[in-house]
Specification:
Blueprint (H helix, E strand, L loop, with lengths): L14 E6 L11 H4 L3 H18 L4 E7 L3 H10 L2 E3 L7 H15 L4 E5 L8 H11 L4 E5 L6 E6 L13 H7 L3 E2 L6 H4 L5 H10 L3 H11 L1
Parallel strand pairs: 1-2, 1-4, 2-3, 5-7
Antiparallel strand pairs: 4-6, 5-6
Helix pairs in contact: 2-3, 2-9
Length: about 220
């Protein structure tokens, strides 16, 4: 586990979340079969808006930094109150997350930081608070996705690097890196990322956020 070297170990109040978002034209390609080519990027943006909106409504969250180079997404998420960080590495998901964490700590060196997927359209602020409370007990911690293969959340305490290893079977990679797996009941909305039509149906059963619901339910008739 890589440690940073802050001048003190006191954490700043609240969590800073880092949310990565691909250009909308490229996002959620596996959803095209269910949503169609025109609706897919609109849903990708709605997922991100509902994720960021719920995160900002969480009492434990101080701020949200979205790493993206998509101007339309950046404008929409900035309007919700997110900070937009350009994806200057342009080297994939994990490079974007590490860059976002560095951007947060450039201004707040002692921030608690956590990476959060941008495709959690059923996210509930109270459930996110439970995950953040649990994560605060460990130097690094993560939450597996609903399939228990990937990861939807990864945290790092003050003085600890995030070391993201998202993508594919990331649950095992995060375990191998020394991060502690958070095992909690009642946080399904934080685990339900959406890549396929089946995932979207599962998120619908949990209760979609308002922007995703408006776009999906209108399209579905």
């Amino acid at each position: 586990m890589k440690l940073l070297h802050p001048t003190h170990t006191e954490a700043d109040d609240g969590w800073s979340l880092v949310v990565p978002l691909k250009p909308l034209a490229l996002a959620k390609s596996r959803l095209a079969a269910a949503a169609g080519a025109r609706l897919r990027p609109r849903l990708a943006l709605a997922f991100a808006e509902d994720t960021v909106g719920a995160a900002l409504d969480c009492a434990r969250v101080r701020d949200v930094a979205v790493v993206t180079d998509d101007p339309a997404a950046g404008a929409a998420l900035a309007a919700l109150g997110a900070r937009i960080v350009p994806d200057s590495p342009a080297a994939g998901l994990n490079a974007a997350l590490a860059h976002g964490a560095r951007a947060v700590r450039a201004g707040r060196p002692h921030a608690r930081v956590a990476a959060l997927n941008a495709d959690l359209p059923a996210l509930r602020p109270a459930e996110l608070a439970l995950v953040l409370d649990a994560a605060g007990n460990f130097p690094r911690a993560f939450l597996a996705d609903a399939a228990e293969i990937g990861t939807t959340f990864l945290s790092a305490a003050p003085g600890v690097e995030l070391e993201p290893a998202f993508g594919g079977a990331s649950r095992l990679r995060h375990l191998s890196s020394g991060a502690v797996e958070i095992r909690l009941a009642g946080v399904d909305s934080v685990r339900r990322d959406v890549d396929t039509g089946e995932d979207l149906a599962a998120a619908l059963a949990l209760g979609l956020g308002p922007r995703t619901a408006a776009r999906w339910l209108t399209a579905a008739g």
